[in-house]
Write a structure and sequence with these properties.
The structure is a single chain. The chain is α+β, with helices and mostly antiparallel strands. The strands form four sheets. Strands 1, 2, 3, 4, 5 and 6 form a six-stranded antiparallel sheet that branches. Helix 9 runs parallel beside helix 10 and helix 10 packs antiparallel against helix 11. Helices cover 32% and strands 31% of the residues. The relative contact order is 0.06.
Length: 526
Amino acid sequence: MTGDRDEAPAAERDQAAEVPVSAVQAVLDGLPGSVVFLLPVRGADGAVTDFRIAAASPDAVDVASREGRALVGLSIRETYPTVAGTDLWRGYLRVLETGTRYEGDPFEYEEVLAGVPRLSRFTVRAAACRGGLIVSWVRLDSSDRERRRLEAMQRLGSMGWVDRDLVRNTITWSDEVYAIFGRDPALGPLRLEELSGLVVPEDLPTLRRTVKRLLGEGRPVDQVFRITGPDGELRHVRFVAEAEVDVHGAPVAVHGFFQNLTAAKRAEQRLLDQERAALVQDGLLTAERELAARLQHALLPLPQQSLHLAGLTVHVAYHPLPEGLNVGGDWYSAIELPDGSALLVVGDVAGHGLDAVATMAQLRFTAKGMAITGTPLPRILARLNTLLLHSPERDGGTATMIMGRYEPAARALTWVQAGHLPPLLLRQGEARFLRAPDGVLLGAVAAPRYAAATLRLQPGDQLLLYTDGLIEKPGEDIDEGFRRLARSLVGCAGDGAGVLQGILDGLLDPDLRRDDVCALHVAFDG
């Protein structure tokens, strides 16, 4: 303490003057470790109340990390406030009184410096010297921390170190190596050559090459081999080591580590299995798409065509998604019936893939067959609904559809719909969507009601049937899609045979498309 320096009794000052402190400091300057020279501080009654650090070695350090000569002048109570009254303190006093050397057991104590508690561990030796004490402090904290860190690193990394002295024929394993090999530490370590009893037969050549390279040639090794644990478990063990050699290049010592890679290898195998499964699934999906595409092309052979039916000019376009595995169920029919009328159909099966294509084929050909036999349009939809409800391969599946029969003598288009988007009529330069008759989507309910509506065509009329892929965009209200389609038909109406293509070019964005598109444009010239 600073006050101790100013107010020490005269007897102490006289004693200190007789002690060649500078000579002691010169000796301590050449010593390794933490060593200090302490002089007693006595009270008025002559009893020792403290010790003052009169000299210190360069490596001397207190719990506050003050080092060397920065400690000189400080008192023990300043540097280690909790030492007073302990066995160490009593040991100091005993050495001072009797001259007997003191060596204490390792001890721990907590200091609070700058408001931060810190637990330190020391072992201390003290010897009498010229009225004071020569004290050496060995801090055990750093070595303990390093040991704990090394143990934690070995445990977390599933690795353990190995040292082998080839001259003395001794070998040392850390505890983790015993755990890696499942070996009782009481049995002692194994030499590298003795691991052949644990290594699987397929890896024995690898082990022999490793032994030869390391012990025979003195070259470093980094090798993984498999062993069988005591429980029969297959373990993947990595061995990394290097050899110390003598002046002749012969190995005299080996230092390295074993690492258990079993968990990493299992994770790697799981990833490989998942990758293989993904490749198989990708192959199956690709095959399914190719099959669905061939079936779809067989049913809808022409992506775009023009027809003349019963006095109508009909342009049809079908555009599947350009890429991906989802083949859709959009479809159309445009044929002339035996009585001279024309059948116009556009449909959309919910879903994608083989099931959607198969359902599309079923609906397309059934509707065409019933129309050819003269079945009324509402009854056709009702029977298609029943057919869809009782198709086991389409359990819960649905479809939309719009179908019209045009009778040229009456210039009348009778049409029905099942949950489909309304037709768009262009008449005298004005586009409007037709009001749909009753009809829910196919496969939704067991007893639906389907009604028919009739439109009488006038010269110059244009009519557009389409699927939702033509107007829908992600995140956009469908009403905006309807308005955009109406504007497009008005703008392209004068393009003659290019009306439908102009609509498609103006509305389809390859980057935003999420569905197939099917459209049927009808022109009546009168």
